[in-house]
Write a structure and sequence with these properties.
The protein is of the alpha/beta class and 241 residues long. It has a domain of 157 residues: Rossmann fold (3-Layer(aba) Sandwich). Helices cover 45% and strands 20% of the residues. Helix 1 crosses helix 10 and helix 4 packs across helix 8. The longest helix is centred in the last third of the chain and has 20 residues.
C-alpha cells in the first residue's frame, strides 16, 4: 500500500463508521484529487465533490467523480444526507457562513462529518516527539528533500516550537471550528486522531516502501496517543442538523 492510500483509508474508515445506510447523498468539500470520493462512490453512495483547485477537480473527474469547482460556501444544490469536510474547514472563511450554508444544504437530521487538525493545541512534547522522529528518519536516509514540506522546515529550523505557530497563520483553529459547529448543529462526537503521519507522507516516495514507512509511523503515533490523547493533533467532529 502506498502513502496516499493509507491516508485515504484512514479518512474513509472514519467516514464509514458514521454512515448507516448506502442510500445516502453525500457532499464532500475539499475533495482534492478525489481519492476519498472515489472510494465512497465505489461503495454505492451518491457523491458530489467540491474543490477550489482546477487541477484537483480535473484529477477527480478523471476518476469518474461528479467533481465541481467551487469556493464554499458559494455552492447551491438539492439537499444532502451527509456533508463531509475533509481537512478543508480550517481554510474556509468566514467560518460562520460556511456552517450556515452546510446547515442549509443538509436534510433534516442530516450529518456533518469533519476531519481536521488542531495545530494551536500542539504541545511542546508533541512537537519535540515529531522532530525526533523526523531526525531519525532523515538519518536513515528515507526522507525526500521535499523543500516545501512542513517536516523539512522543522528539520531546517532545529525543531523550534515557534515554527508550529507560524504554520497556523490565518487558519481557523479546531476550537473555533467546534464552536461554530455547535452554534448550528447538535454535536454527536468529538475525537482526537493521528495526523503527524500525513506530514511524513509528503516526504517519502509514493511506493510500497514509502507506504511501509508511513504505516509504521501511523502505528507509532496511534500508540503514543493511547498514553495521552492530548498528544494527538488530528480532530474529528460529527454533528447532526
Amino acid at each position: 500500500m502506498r502513502p496516499s492510500e493509507i491516508q485515504t483509508n484512514e479518512t474513509l474508515q472514519f467516514v464509514l463508521e458514521n454512515l448507516s445506510s448506502k442510500k445516502l447523498r453525500i457532499l464532500e468539500v475539499g475533495c482534492g484529487s478525489g481519492a476519498v470520493a472515489k472510494q465512497i462512490q465505489n461503495l454505492g453512495y451518491e457523491i458530489i465533490a467540491l474543490d477550489s483547485s482546477v487541477k484537483a477537480i480535473d484529477a477527480a473527474k478523471e476518476l469518474g467523480i461528479d467533481a465541481r469547482i467551487a469556493n464554499f460556501p458559494d455552492f447551491a444544490e438539492a439537499p444532502f444526507d451527509v456533508i463531509l469536510f475533509t481537512r478543508s474547514l480550517h481554510h474556509i472563511r468566514p467560518l460562520k457562513s460556511a456552517l450556515e450554508r452546510a446547515h442549509q444544504l443538509l436534510k433534516p437530521s442530516g450529518l456533518l462529518i469533519v476531519e481536521d487538525f488542531a495545530f494551536n493545541d500542539t504541545s511542546e512534547y508533541t512537537a519535540a516527539w515529531f522532530y525526533r522522529l523526523l531526525k531519525l528518519l532523515d538519518s536513515c536516509d528515507v526522507l525526500l528533500p521535499a523543500e516545501d514540506s512542513f517536516g523539512r522546515k522543522l528539520l531546517k529550523g532545529g525543531g523550534e516550537f515557534s515554527l508550529w505557530h507560524e504554520h497556523t497563520h490565518e487558519i481557523n483553529t479546531a476550537q473555533e471550528v467546534l464552536q461554530a459547529i455547535g452554534e448550528h448543529f447538535e454535536i454527536l462526537q468529538t475525537t482526537s486522531a493521528a495526523y503527524l503521519y500525513r506530514y511524513v507522507s509528503a516526504m517519502v516516495e509514493e511506493d510500497e516502501r514509502g507506504g511501509q514507512i508511513i504505516s509504521d509511523v501511523l502505528e507509532l503515533e496511534k500508540q503514543t496517543g493511547l498514553e495521552s490523547e492530548q498528544f494527538l493533533i488530528g480532530r474529528r467532529f460529527v454533528a447532526r442538523r
